[in-house]
Amino acid sequence: MYFLKRILFMVPLVLLISFFAFGLLKLAPGGPFSQQRAPASEAIRKSIEAKYHLDEPWLKQYLRYLGLLWERDASGRLHRVSGGLIVGDLGPSFKYRDHSVNDIIAQALPVSLTLGAIAFVFAQCVGIPLGFYAAMRRGRWGDYFGSFIAILAVCIPPLVVGPVLIMIFSIRLGWFPPGLWGTPIYAVLPMIALGLFYSGKIARLMRESLLNTLQSEFITTARAKGLSESKIMAKHAFRLAVLPVVSYSGPLLADLLTGSFVVEAAFQIPGIGVFMVNSMLNLDQPMTVGLVLLYAILLLLLNLAVDFSYSLLDPRVRL
């Protein structure tokens, strides 16, 4: 029942997000057709705006975007305008005239999903063991080494890591292709460039959480009962220590799945991140609102998945 309520609550929340995204874009100066190289005449500009219904009041445009606008036909009968968000139609793109927003998302999203998923797995597989290793060797060289690597990963953004990886492993050594998207070998360098930064954050979260968990009373009780250290770590400490990492993983995965503009631009990957930035620069309203809604829905669903994971990892949540 709890998760059903959460899912039902998502519907008005997504509508509210779409309302604010739509309204804020209307407040931006200029328009999608005012940035052309050759300025069109006033008559042509009005004709284009009428074609895309940009000459209507913004509230009417918003209802049309939702698919909740009703108009009278030639016979005077009311009918609902076809399309709209309620049927999954995100509208046409103002920048890419021959494509709809749905077409662009269908082409670019699988690429970003693939890159984001493997970068997420890479960040988890590097960050969690590194943080665990540093916490188990607190105050020793292993702790200093692990903490240094984690901080170094956080301090060097993908904007720097990407070109460095291309220069070393593509240009000088020739081990990996420098860009584009094809066979799995093309994903190695983008995966590292995108996931390394987040692996450092995960390592720091894991280290601090595990250190706090090891100071808990139930850990002392388990040791007093004679349980082995490996069993305490695996059965008791790790399950609770990983909870902050699980909480962080929801928004992190949403960020990764919707693409990273910097990494996609550096490696010339045709993902959704490039369209996200270009749509805002070009004031491509349907594209921007559609991608904002895509990100919001992913974030809500992944946060719901995080809450479900909590109930599996922490018995106190089930109670």
Task: Note down, in words, how this protein is organized.
The chain has 319 residues and is mainly alpha-helical. It is 70% helix and 2% strand. A two-stranded antiparallel sheet has the order 1-2. The protein starts with a helix and ends with a helix.
Tell me the total number of β-strands.
Answer: 2
Give the helix tally: 14
- Range of strand content: under 5%
Overall shape:
flat
Task: Give the secondary structure arrangement, pairings included.
Layout: H1 2-27, H2 42-51, H3 58-66, E1 70-72, E2 78-80, H4 101-136, H5 141-155, H6 158-172, H7 188-214, H8 217-224, H9 229-241, H10 243-257, H11 261-266, H12 272-281, H13 285-313, H14 315-318
Antiparallel strand pairs: 1-2
